[in-house]
Amino acid sequence: MIHLPLALFLASAVPAATPTSLAPRVPALVAKPLAGDLLQATVHRLANGLTIYLSPNPQLARISAWIAVRTGSKMDPPDCTGLAHYLEHMLFKGTTKLGTTDYAKEKPHLDAITRLYEARFTTTDSGERKRLEQAIDHENQEASAFEIPNELGRVYDALGFNGLNAFTSDENTIYVCDFPKNRAEVWATAEAERFAHPVFRLFQSEIETVYEEKNRSLDHPGRALWEAFSLLLFKEHPYGTQPTLGSIEHLKNPSLKRVEEYFHAHYVPNNMAVALAGDFDRAAMLRLLERSFGGWKPAPVPAAGPWPLPPLKGEETVSVTFESQEQVLIGWLTPANRTPEADALVVTSMLLSNGRAGIIDLTLNQEQKVKEAGAGSDANNDAGTFTLWAVPKQGQTLEQAKALLLDCVAAVKRGAFTDEDMQAAITTWSVGQKRDLEYNESRVAMMAYSFIHREEWAYATGWLDRLKQVTRDEVIHAANRYLGDDRAVAYRRTGKPDLPSITKPGFTEVTIDPARQSAFAKNLLAIPARPIEPRWIVAGRDYVAGDRPFGRLWAGRNPMNDVFTVSIGFTSVGTGTDRTMGAAFDLLALAGAGDLSASEFKRKLYALGSSISYSVDERWVWVGVSGLERNLEDTIRLMVRQCTSPNVAPGTLDKMKAVAIGAHQDTRKNPGAIFGALIDFAQRGKQGGTLQQLSDPETRALDQERLLAVARSVWAWPADVRYCGTRSPNEFAAAWSAVVPAPTKARVRGPRIVVA
């Protein structure tokens, strides 16, 4: 538990009358966890304005850390886009102490490189630019005699850190990693140094990295479609005009001086937050953060915006061409976050698309009227976006897919849903949120984004109560008000694109001795760490494993929430015994159960907040079931009904075949899929998963009764059942045995036979 006097000291470190220029809308402090907060988080502020979020979680002896900066591509200078992303890369290059063997000798060369880049940035004379590039190359060679690339990563790797990375988007830049609980002092010492005294060395090599990232983005069909779509929605706002990776022209002419100025303007403690989740003592962590980050000086933060947000006028369209599957995006401008309308639009998106029983899920995906489709609502600080998307099936036009999506929106506008549908959507979403928050990374993400979105923590944790208060009339009103005829539509059509590219600069490769190490790195590695006493998982205490009439049961208690998870594995079957097994369970997933149609079945399952999934590989068939513990028996009954008495609507298999054959054609156009197939063939030859897939003729020949018989047959085998929930093993076994038919076959052991 938190040591309250220390928490109160830190809470009072920033006066209530702190000027807004030094503290841009910081969240209220939370000295002790709020009632009902699943994260049990507290919010603190150091004397320099750095906001701290802490969520202790003793389930794993590790800590996830996110350092969030309220700056992203939205804050890039219009004549120097991509700058926030450039800076993200440069924050991995070390400091005056880290990443160098002698900063005093290195610095004159770094200063010269900065001056030369600035001269290059301002000149248009090609001959002069070439001369400046040669001078930069020379200084780079001289500086490299003292430089140690990636020293931060090398220290972290040596001490068991994972996931060292960062990412930039419109509103934020966030730095992430995960480390053993006994290495918190190393992390705090290194990160405090990293942000207080960075040195932007090895800029030339990082330019090549950013160029390559931009080139890959130009080859990415999804990113190309989204950027064209965003520019259509946000014609005069950085959300659309300033892509995170920057424009090609700006990337070709970087200014190191502008990068440094950007850092000093935005990377100040009163514009940043540290979010930690994991196995730590709250009071001890606060003391460590004050000791390490407390000397970092605050500074005024530049004002941002406002930017124009002109409304759309009618249906505005844009098209991009790519050698990939076609896709349509439909979008509307919606209110910013922290507004009642934003909550109503979130519920609207759940009703349309929730992966299970939304209007789009049932009328388009379940009925296979398109290859796949979905919806989403995203609210940023300045504005929001409500988006629909669809991938057409073979023989269908993008315009036809668009019309089907708009029909779904029309259904919401006229109120073709019930209060029960809304409650089911919110219940199922809450189950997913509870499950996500079992993981430290999800916890720190929620805390960091609440800071980025300028939310009070009480507001961030009150999401479920707010959504429950949204009424049916509010959803209908929001849909009619915001999802009208003034919309953006982006099409990705099949064809060969005319893609620009960036030629990498021709700098001389530098050779750096990998054995170099700074004194600061040595000191980090020498920081003592108390050994972590392993918490062994003990059979009989933490879990029970044993044979039951239905197979073998592994059961453990969920200490986090009231969500259960059951994984049922059948080891005697798979595509290695029957190559149609995957198709059989694809068809089963489209079926109803007994007298329930597919839509009725999904609605019933969805109302429980439960999910059922099937997966098949060469040696296994897995059935996954999860939901609220109070609904376990009802969920298992539905699973058994679907598996033993599937109700397949007429024409379902024919549609499934058409979608599968169309997917084969799309795969042949996808460079990533082709690359994966080549790797698969190199590793396993003709027995690889790619060549074992059903061909188009085999797909056309599939028979419904045989497929359903194949799917039903797996339940004749004993199962490996893995349960995590709030019941005892015997309670779960009794509930399972009361509903699931007993197996009729003995488990198969030994070598398996692959059927051609």
Question: What is the typical, i.e. mean, pLDDT?
Answer: 89
Largest sheet: 6 strands, mixed
Determine the N-to-C terminus distance. 61 Å
Strand order of the largest sheet: 1-2-6-3-5-4
Beta-strand content bin:
15-25%
Instruction: Give the radius of gyration.
Output: 28 Å
Q: Structural class of the helix and strand makeup?
A: alpha+beta
Topology of this protein?
Layout: H1 4-11, E1 42-45, E2 51-56, E3 62-69, H2 83-90, H3 103-122, H4 126-143, H5 151-158, E4 162-168, E5 173-180, H6 184-196, H7 203-218, H8 221-233, H9 238-241, H10 248-252, H11 256-266, E6 272-278, H12 282-293, E7 315-322, E8 327-334, H13 340-352, H14 359-366, E9 372-379, E10 384-391, H15 398-413, H16 419-436, H17 440-452, H18 457-461, H19 463-469, H20 472-482, E11 487-494, H21 519-526, E12 543-548, E13 551-557, E14 563-570, H22 581-589, E15 592-593, H23 598-607, E16 611-616, E17 621-628, H24 632-644, E18 646-647, H25 652-669, H26 671-684, H27 689-692, H28 696-700, H29 704-713, E19 719-725, H30 729-739
Parallel strand pairs: 2-6, 7-11, 13-19
Antiparallel strand pairs: 1-2, 3-5, 3-6, 4-5, 8-10, 8-11, 9-10, 12-13, 14-17, 14-19, 15-18, 16-17
Helix pairs in contact: 2-11, 3-4, 6-12, 13-20, 14-15, 22-29
Q: How would you describe what is shown here?
A:
The protein is α+β, with helices and mostly antiparallel strands. The protein contains 30 helices and 19 strands. Helix 2 (83-90) crosses helix 11 and helix 22 (581-589) crosses helix 29 (704-713). It is globular. Mean pLDDT is 89; it is low at 1-23 and 749-756.
